[in-house]
Description:
The protein is of the alpha+beta class. The chain contains 5 helices and 6 strands; from the N terminus they run βααβααββββα.
Amino acid sequence: xxxxxxxxxxxxxxxxxxxxxxxxxxxxxxxxxxxxxxxxxxxxxxxxxxxxxxxxxxxxxxxxxxxxxxxxxxxxxxxxxxxxxxxxxxxxxxxxxxxxxxxxxxxxxxxxxxxxxxxxxxxxxxxxxxxxxxxx
Length: 136
């Protein structure tokens, strides 16, 4: 487990989001930086993984309101974005678990599916953080 906090510049690099997108997501309450008492936002490793996953899902066409519902559902299940696989299809998202595939949003509208490995996203964030640390 990687311990520490990371600035918004690191979040931008690992998520592909712009500063404006990050600020908008913070303002909307979709993401919440760590409480530091400082002006600059700080993020945990788990937050980097979750935000990168949400950014990837957003780029795949999942709406911000749906991202909020997905995040809330994972939290109620005691899971994080680094613990599971999601399947996205337009406005519906399913969680792949031990019991099978469960709909999170229950609004299927497309026939094309995206299978997103969240564990792979966590590994990619780890590798990018290691590369950033080596470059520093």
